[in-house]
Amino acid sequence: MKIFFKLCTLVLASFLLFTSIPVAVSAAYPGTQEPAYAKWGRLAVFETGKRYPDYDIVDYLYVGRTLAQNGENIERFKLWIRKGTSEKGVFVTITLTPNRVFKSISFQETDR
């Protein structure tokens, strides 16, 4: 009888011990894909860095994709850049052919 109680106590203690230990779950699941705009976002950041070499890029926002009447895809991003105490926003517009091949890039500064 004593062996039965010891065994039950051991099983219960083990269960309580191992169920209270947090298990880390990786958010970077290997099967996840990056968003379709990620390739163009990297291009927007890279080209903005070239155009404004004295500024640091401090924020990034994907504004969205629109389809032009001629079938071209337009990807828009807003980057916030800083140089010392001076800050400004830059809208980056990337135009793609209907086959999603790069066509052009444009920049428009904004104070907001």
From TrEMBL:
InterPro entries: DUF3889 (IPR024987). It comes from the Bacteria. Residues 1-27 form the signal peptide. Keywords: Signal. Pfam families: DUF3889 (PF13028). This is DUF3889 domain-containing protein. It comes from Fictibacillus phosphorivorans.
